[in-house]
Amino acid sequence: MPRPTVRLRVAGPQGLADLTGPTACEIMDALERQAVLDRLGPDPLRADADPARFIDAVRRSRTTIGALLMNQKIVAGIGNIYRAELLFRARLDPFVPGRDLSTGTLEEMWEDLVALMTYGARTGRIVTTQPEHRDLEARIVERSRGTRQNGDEDPDAVSRERSFYVYHRQTLPCRLCGTTVRSTDLAARTVFWCPRCQSVRSRRANWTREHPAAPWALTRGAAAQEAA
Question: Which spans in the chain are helix H?
């Protein structure tokens, strides 16, 4: 049974997707739908997406990067998990103003996001951890009903305990440095971050260059190797 906050469930033979707690949930005609699409920022899953729109919008704003990533007019498709995990992988404090970030930092974040979201679209699962990090502190703080993803019953799938660096890991040690992961409210959702790994910076940290997602996220048929 869906939880009380579910407003829409789409189910098929391979799995299901729940729309949980949306700001708006409406039935629209074609013109209304197009008007909504026209307001969206670039979508990392689209081949014709223009990352310059994302970069320019962020760099013009005094709003924190943690809030901007949840604004669908800035970039389309990011939810709370991708926000927290993208910022961890960028080694970036969620409260840095967008205008303080360099173009290089944002370009690297976009490239990382494309790989991570492509993996999610292909597998139906959100996984952001590098394969070599997945067995480090492989725990999350479960909600009362647990954090569920499509394919949880698949023995070859990366388990949710191994899938995230900081999401739902508040009060637990960071996988990489051992510092306690923190959480607070930001842009009407809970943001999670490691105060040691993620710093107030303007330039890119090069972490994703050293630990790129593309080799495992963009390679089909790598699931068994990732789960091993």
Answer: 30-39, 51-59, 65-68, 80-89, 103-123, 207-210, 214-217, 223-227
**Residue 12 to residue 198: CA distance in whole angstroms:** 39
**Least reliable range by pLDDT among 16-25, 100-109, 114-123:** 16-25
Two tokens, residue 11: 């189910």
Query: What's the mean per-residue pLDDT of the chain?
Result: 90
Q: HSE, CB side, 13 Å, CA atoms: give it for residue 227.
A: 16
CA distances from 191 to 19, 32, 45, 222 (A): 19, 31, 23, 30
Tell me the C-alpha distance between 6 and 171, whole Å.
Answer: 27
Which residue segments constitute the domains of the chain, with CATH numbers given? 39-144+158-199+208-227 (1.10.8.50)
- Closest among 147, 117, 120, 116 to 130, alpha carbons compared: 116
Residue-level pLDDT at 228: 46
Residues in a beta bridge with 41: none
Task: Specify the pTM.
Answer: 0.85
| Contact in structure between 175 and 137 (CB atoms under 8 Å) | yes
Please tell me the distance from the alpha carbon of residue 72 to that of residue 65, in angstroms, as a whole number. 13
pLDDT digits (tens, 9 = 90+) for 158-185: 999 999 999 999 999 999 999 999 999 9
Measured CA to CA, the distance from residue 141 to residue 124 in angstroms comes to 21
